[in-house]
Amino acid sequence: MEPSDLVVHINGWPGSGKLTIARHLAERLGARLADNHTLINPAEALFARGDPLYRSLRSAVRKSVFEHLAKAPAEQSFVFTDALSDDAADARAFEDCAALARQRGARFIAVVIDCDIEENLKRLTRAGRSKLHKLTDPEVLLGLRRAHRLLRGNGDLLVEIDVTTLGADEAAEAIMSAIAIPAVR
Description:
5-stranded parallel sheet, 7 helices
């Protein structure tokens, strides 16, 4: 079966399991994965976050990626991950994915995953996250969770899943069920 043209955006707190879930989902859909660190890490590797060159490189990489994805074959689906909150800058980042879906004539699925704080902290501090330039500081996560809510953007469908007790494979299956598309595998 050919995959439907989809753009799936998975949003969740740092350490909630977005990338692992997205990998399972992309495999099931026959989709390409563009996780947030694919877009962030070139700038992260080369510049400190406070350096103006960090922001400009991050913006240039993101713009180039989205321009290229717009030209991908019509039948190609994409899965994105992000950690977006309820602020204007994050809403604009979400809109990039929505605009890509519109430009491609694709079905746009917004997925929000969440888990309880204790599980989130446990996942945030797992070995190997820092090597991938991922957030590992519990105080930063707690500050984000106190100050913000996860962005729940508009799409053709909004799927919300509590992954506190779900493994990545189970979460991907729940998303597949919600969007009612059989796996390609």
